[in-house]
Amino acid sequence: MFMAPAAKVDFLVMGAGVAGLRAAVELADHGDVLVVTKESLGESNTHYAQGGIAVAMEGDEDVALHLNDTVAAGDGLVYRPAAQALVAEGPERVAELIEWGARFDREGGRLLRTREGAHSLPRILHANGDATGAEISRSLAAFARAHKRIRFAEWTMVTALVASEGGVIGADLRDRQNRIGRIGARAVLVAAGGAGQVYSDTTNPPVATGDGIALAAEAGAELADMEFYQFHPTAFSLPGAPRFLLSEALRGEGAYLRNDKSERFMERYHPLLELAPRDVVARAITREGAGSGPSEARPAWLDMRHVKGVDLHARFPGISAFLARYGLDLARDPIPVRPAAHYLMGGIRTDPDGRSSVRGLYAAGEAACTGVHGANRLASNSLLEGLVFGARAAKAMIADDLPLEAASGGGDDLAPRDAGEEAELESRVAKFQRSMWADAGLLREESTLRLGLTAQAEFEAYIGRFSAQGKNSRRLVEAQAICRVARAILVSALARDESRGAHFRNDFPHRDDERFLKHSVLAGDGAIAFEAWPAKHTPMQWSESRALAQGASRSEAS
Question: Which residues are catalytic?
Answer without folding.
Answer: 278
